[in-house]
Amino acid sequence: MNGTSVPSARGNITGTLFGLTKTLTWQNVYQFWRAAFFPTWNQSTGVIVFTADASDGRGNTGTGSSFPIGLTAWKVIPAILKVVPRVLNESGAGAVVFEPGDTVRIEARVTYESHNAHNRAFPGPLNATRGGQVTAVLGYGAFNATSSLFATTVATLTLAHNAATENWSAEYVVKDTDPLRADLQVYISASDGAGSPPNTGKVFTTMFAFQAAPPSPPPPTPAGLDATVVGAISLLLLVVGVVAGVLLGRRGRGGTPSKAEAKEEIEEEWEVKEEESK
């Protein structure tokens, strides 16, 4: 039924989908009647049936529907959320190496991607309005897709939503007991409140490392003194100390006699004189 040659049909062709009925308009180039129906972000998943009711305005009518079952049935499936991750340090710069005491900041941007340019209500960021939930698993080793866990889990984090930036983030402070490895990674999983099943998205961050802090540096050299000069001074002071120790030891054995020793010597002299006089 051509809408141009049968103008009385215009306004009498309707279609119903998602519980909404719209009047179909005639497309003269492609020769069909059409209208756009846009699923919401939380549209129920499964088979959907489109029903068209037609009248040419002259008493002729007809009804048709899409298949309710089978491979040719129309279906709504969960959307795949786009997740863009970043690994940052406490200053907000990208980083791949962290030491005990450092802060690892995990950040993610989660969005609904536009599948049709005309569906302007569907695209946008995942947020609290759409019941957003974003979690992260920090670990290493083989990843189990069923359990969504690494062979070894270091930490599980819940990311918080920032309404100003529309980003999700969480922080982890590296512990002294954490493994020192270069193959650490974070698995981020996002979902909304669309129902069962929800719209979901997932992604892995790049690998990063936990490493030991470098040893403390030696005391600074006094300003204006070369390291060689400082070494020579230290050696000289050591020699002076040894010599002083030797001299003090000798003085204790052959130096100025004490009062007791002087008295003994005087008594010995008197005894010698007495013997000589006899």
Walk me through what this model shows.
This protein is α+β, with helices and mostly antiparallel strands and 278 residues long. It has 2 domains: 7-76, no CATH class; 82-210, Immunoglobulin-like. 17% of the residues lie in helices and 35% in strands. It is built from 2 helices and 18 strands. It has helices at residues 227-254, 259-277; strands at 14-17, 20-23, 25-27, 32-34, 46-48, 51-55, 61-65, 74-76, 82-88, 97-98, 103-112, 124-125, 133-144, 149-162, 167-173, 185-191, 200-204, 209-210. Strands 9, 11, 12, 13, 14, 15, 16 and 17 form an 8-stranded antiparallel sheet that branches. The radius of gyration is 45 Å and the shape is rod-shaped. 13% of the residues are buried.
Task: Give average pLDDT, whole number.
Answer: 87
Distance between the termini: 169 Å
Gross morphology is: rod-shaped
Question: Which architecture of the largest domain would the CATH scheme give at its second level?
Answer: Sandwich
Give the SSE order as H and E letters.
EEEEEEEEEEEEEEEEEEHH
DSSP helix fraction: 10-25%
By CATH, the topology of the largest domain is Immunoglobulin-like
Structural class: alpha+beta
Strand percentage lies at: 35-45%
Q: What summary fits the major beta sheet?
A: 8 strands, antiparallel
**Level-1 CATH class name of the largest domain:** Mainly Beta
Q: Which consecutive residue ranges, at least 5 long each, have pLDDT under 50? A: none
Helix segment count?
A: 2
The value of Rg in angstroms is 45 Å
Number of strands: 18
User: How many domains, in number, for the residues?
Assistant: 2
